[in-house]
Amino acid sequence: MSKKTIILFSGDYDKVMAAFVIANGAAAMDDEVTMFFTFWGLNAIRKPEGGGALTGKPKSTIQKMFSAMMPRGAERLRMSKMNFAGAGPKMLKMVMKSENVMSVSQLIETAQEQNIKFIACTMSMDVMGIRQEELIDGIEYAGVATYLAEADEGNVNLFI
Amino acid sequence: MSKKTIILFSGDYDKVMAAFVIANGAAAMDDEVTMFFTFWGLNAIRKPEGGGALTGKPKSTIQKMFSAMMPRGAERLRMSKMNFAGAGPKMLKMVMKSENVMSVSQLIETAQEQNIKFIACTMSMDVMGIRQEELIDGIEYAGVATYLAEADEGNVNLFI
Amino acid sequence: MSKKTIILFSGDYDKVMAAFVIANGAAAMDDEVTMFFTFWGLNAIRKPEGGGALTGKPKSTIQKMFSAMMPRGAERLRMSKMNFAGAGPKMLKMVMKSENVMSVSQLIETAQEQNIKFIACTMSMDVMGIRQEELIDGIEYAGVATYLAEADEGNVNLFI
Description:
Three copies of one chain form a homotrimer.
Chain A: E1 3-8, H1 13-28, E2 32-37, H2 61-69, H3 87-98, H4 104-113, E3 117-121, H5 122-128, E4 140-142, H6 144-153, E5 156-159
Parallel strand pairs in A: 1-2, 1-5, 2-3, 3-4
Helix pairs in contact in A: 1-4
C-alpha cells in the first residue's frame, strides 16, 4: 500500500482513459490515489449540462469563448489521434463496449467510488474561466503547492 | 543500480525515440528497465509485415479499420509535430544518420539486447484489435496490475 | 526539501507553462529542481533574436529548415489545442495577464532566479541543428546519462 499521483493535463479521450485505468488499478490494489486536473484535463470533469447560474467573477469574453469551445464532460472528449471529427471516439467506444472495457464516464464514477481524491487546479480554472459549479461534485480545489505536497508522499507520480 | 519504468502511450516517432533513448541509457548504467506499451505506443512494436494468420477471436470491422490505419512498426511512425505527410520523419532520419544517432528500430533492437522488459498492454490490444502474432517477439503480455507492481519497485517512472 | 526533475520534451505553450509552474512551485518550497530540455522543449529556451554568428559544425540544409520552422523562444510557442494560427496563444496570454498569471517568459526568468538547473539535451541539439549560441544563457549541456543521475536523486520525476 503506497501512494500514487497523476496530473491529468490532457483532455484527449484516449489519454484520460489511460489515466483513469491506472488510477483505478492502483486504488483496487489499496493504494491511495490523488488526481490533479489541470488545463484541458479539467474538461474530463466538467458537468455535461453546464453549471447553471455561476457565482464569482463574471467570465470575460475570451473565457466565454474558451468555455464554449472546450468539450463538456468525459463523453464529449476528442481523441489525440484518428479523431475524424468525432467518428474516432464513437468507434473506440463501440469496441470498448464489445470488449467489456469501461467507458471514461464509468471509469470516473468508479474512481470516485474508490475514494480517489480529485483536485481541480484553481490557477487553470481562473485562466480558462471554469467555475466550481461547472465541475462534477465531490472534488477539491487547490494549487500547485497542494499537488507537490501530495507528490512528495507518492512513490509513482505521472504527468499525463 | 535501480529500476526504471516507462509507459509508452505515444506512437509518435519523436516521443518513441525519447522513450528508448532514456530506457537504453538507464540499461547501459545497469538499471533494470521495464517498458509498458499501451494504445498508440503498441504501434512501435508491431511487425512491419503484419502477423500472418491470426489466432484468437476474429477482429471486428472497426478493429480491422483501426489496425489498417495505424502504422505498423517503428519506421512507419509519424512525428508529433512537423510531420508534413511523412517528409518530417524522413528528414529527421537523415539528420539522425548523419549525426550518428540510432534510428528507432535500432534503439528497439538495442533495448532487447540489453534485456529491457517489454510488456504489451492486453486491454489496449483488445480494444485496438491487435493480436500477439502482430507484435515483435520476446515480449510479455499483461495488464495494469503488472505495470503497477513494476512501478512500485521503480525509482523513476515516466509516462510518455 | 527534496529533489524534482522534469524532462521538457514538449514545445507547446500550455505544456511549457505547466512545467514551469510545477518547477517554480517546487523551488519556492525549497526543493532542488532540474529541468532537462529535449526536442521541441528546446524551443522554449531559444533566444528570440537567434544566436548571431554560430560556432561549430555548419548546419546542414535540413537542420537549417528545422531551425527556421521551429518557434524561437517562449512567447512564440504554439498551443497543443485551439492554436487557431496563433490566435489561441494570444487570447490565452490576455486572460493570463488579467488573472495575474505569469507569462511563460516570466516563469522562465523566475526559474533562473530561483536557481533551477536548466540542462539542454546535446543529442537533440545535434539532431535539430541547434547551437549553444542560440539558447539562453546560464544553462548546462549534457546527455541522457546526466539526466538519469539527476532523476536517481529525485523523488518526483516528470516527463512533459
